[in-house]
Design brief:
This protein is mainly alpha-helical. The chain is built from eight helices and three strands, in the order ααβααββαααα. Helix content is about 50%, strand content about 10%. It holds the Pfam family HTH_20.
Amino acid sequence: MGKETTVDVILHPVRMRIIQSLINQEMTSQQIKELLPDIPQASLYRHIKKLLEAGVIHIIDEIPNRGTIEKVYSLQDPANASIDPEKLKNFTKEEHMDLFFKFMANILGEYERYLNQPNIDLVRDGVAFRQTSVFLDDQEYAQFVKDVSEVYVRAMQKMPEKGRRRRTIATIIIPE
């Protein structure tokens, strides 16, 4: 088996969760572990190491802690945690299907983790999934994407704090 590409590294479900945890923030492995308690510690460290080796995440600080050094991780450049559009253009149909399948598998994993929690309440928790078709010309579509992007950016700038829950929002746009 050949060396994993950066795309393969990014698209692993556990690594995608680590990347999502680091969006707009810096965290130690212990803080990541607290945010992702279902991932065994040894597995978490292995995935953090893979992301480091691929240059997706970086160590931005080292803090002495009881005789050890605790590393602080960051995306530093969020562009490294996504697939270059030029590279995406050259994907084969099979590579696009594989990419989409991994994306969908990650969403399924997120939903399954939610459903495995005790005392879920889809209405109270704000669970939603829907599909709709819209008819927009290219200019209207560009404005729609701009508007949605602005809403996403505002929401992504909110830092974790008491009373805030992490929510996964996925967008899929497929032209006819």
